[in-house]
């Protein structure tokens, strides 16, 4: 061991942390790390995780093992930071960076001897990993900040102690295990240690992130000047990003059988080149499903890849799919390291497309609704091109594309050539028979492709003539398909649907079952890991089933971000769904299987409905399947039978848009869940009261987030929730009351109080908040439940404001923010919302400068770390900064900040009341600047204000009349959500 006195002081610190953490292990760990040639690294750890993945594929534990990959990524970031500042510190023959991997590998190796232990430890480690910062984001700050170095060592020590505790748990003596053979009992012995270490990590992480803000602010100015100086000296230097162009990111392999579409390829090339260099040129390819629109776009991309610097493929049927693919595009462009911040990725990709000099091509596949594209295709670039494919011809008129291309079916002779070429037989097929078959299926390439799979799947002696005979014999058997209800089936001829029916009928039962199942899911990205959960026989049975579906060309297999997925052709999906509808009982069973499979992978709400920012990526990954199931359930007639599982999935799905303030999407799924529960003959009983209350509470939060337009209904729902929870709580024998019961009742009182605060009834919120706080204190201490107490103190701060108790309000809000920082971590939407409220309270309490600085910091995090520039919370921050700059008489800066949310209002979903308020404040800034547009803007804002008051608050019209010649700010503030920020809390009652 190196002599401590010979090491720098920072090295001594690392050595001490390591020795303190490893002391409980004594010899086992030190012996492991002393093995000659033993090397521990990110790569060896990844190999171990992959080995465990292979070992447990298809088993429930695989979900827990998935969480080890993000953990490894976070530890790799930690390793880089440690290497940057801890060179020379060694112990047990390994430096601190090596120990990161050695201790993890040792822990997992011990755990892998028992599946129960492995699942528990993997779950704990994954949860631990979600709290780690992205250390390498702050690599430049370490050399100049001793405080950051210290906090990094503390976090490192928390991690090592966590693993050591796990090792101790796993290596109990045989005598101990014999005495306490049951896992829960053995687990209880160590639960407190794990919780204590996790709390320590949360505290250190919060302090670490906070310190990066302080250190970053100190050097920001000098860095900005340095960058400007470098650019002036080296104006031609390009970015040193690791991104290598050209980029070619298509999730589809090239079709080697593509043929018979040369005219269309040339027409598409011509259309895209007509206006090249003036505006982003675009072409809409429209036509029947199965006519070959997607294949044409794929072939065009492959043939012309040399003409572009970047080509990206975007699935465009649903907004959630587009957002996911934009996030992937941002990662490929080096604009982000993660796929979990979709809003920010959309903004960054749009910025790159508009600002780059490179030539790019975007392919938006299968657009169903032109409105979905608003946030994505609003570009001013002059060197980009886009292809849009759609079955909906009306989109051609809705969407302002440069040109259009109508894809028509192949004529019989061309269809015959396509069919024979796809067969790849060594002997000649009868061209006349091929023409007859092509004519029978209206020359649709998808049908012809499925026919090739059918013929080739029989045997080498089976020819097109044999298929034609079988086709004619079965034509009448499948005539009912031609009478399908709905647009999707009526597009296709009876003969083409007969081809689908023949292909499906030939499948083995298990292949038919899987085809039925995936027809209910998002067709563009069906994760194979999820599908393997469906197969009770495991991986081998699934592989066999997939082979049947692929050989018949009913599905395609691809990979997205190294994850294997299946895709189902939409005409095939529609056909299978139509078939399922012929037997509604069977349809219901398949639907139940699909929702059960999705339930296994889709994140669940926390028991107390706390924010779960760390699960956003998982929500986004599986939400397209939720939307698909929701549409089927919502649109089926007669209605499908519901289940507890479906309702809980919809409720959990509503949790994500609530956290992201995607109110329209959240209200759709949550309203369905609420309606289902209310329609049951027995009403709301003890079996489903929790999910009903959670659903209703989320709806109320989303409605109040809209401001005055949803406030009345939201408050009514909060009142309903409080009554239901109180009745349930009172019905439980005191000895059976749990901590969850108390917290849920406390939250219902808190939410009721929030409804009052939204309505500016601040002092009336005092009593329910006191009840909520008393219930929470009965559950435990503040340090144990930081998030719950943070919410309580935040709302109490507004009660103090309503009473003009300014010092008490500031104290309560500072304490709430401190607790939130420890509960959620700095770079979370929840923590930034608390900071936002703190800044608002500080302004009202007479601290405008500190308020402005905090609002600026929150704006940076919301815009650059959490969301996009046009997200609701970011727009709220732009407004707050603009308002405060106006009050500080920095008029030009105020105008710049306020203009952003006002200009974004048309394309964003910012509530009407927020838009009106920002417009009003901007008009006052322009008035102070003697701008001629001030009067018109104020008139516009006041018109919206009056309309909102007439519709939702006629009792305030008299107050409005008094403001026509004075400041209307109290009214504008009153109409927005409390989370949009208010600076006139004291003014409304005094008006």
Automatic annotation (TrEMBL):
Residues covered by the NB-ARC domain: 262-407
Protein origin, superkingdom: Eukaryota
UniProt domain DUF7779: residue ranges: 503-582
Pfam families: DUF7708, DUF7779, NB-ARC
Record domain DUF7708: where: 98-201
Residue ranges of the TM segments: none
Sample GO molecular function, one term: ADP binding
Protein name: Uncharacterized protein
Organism the protein comes from: Coniochaeta ligniaria NRRL 30616
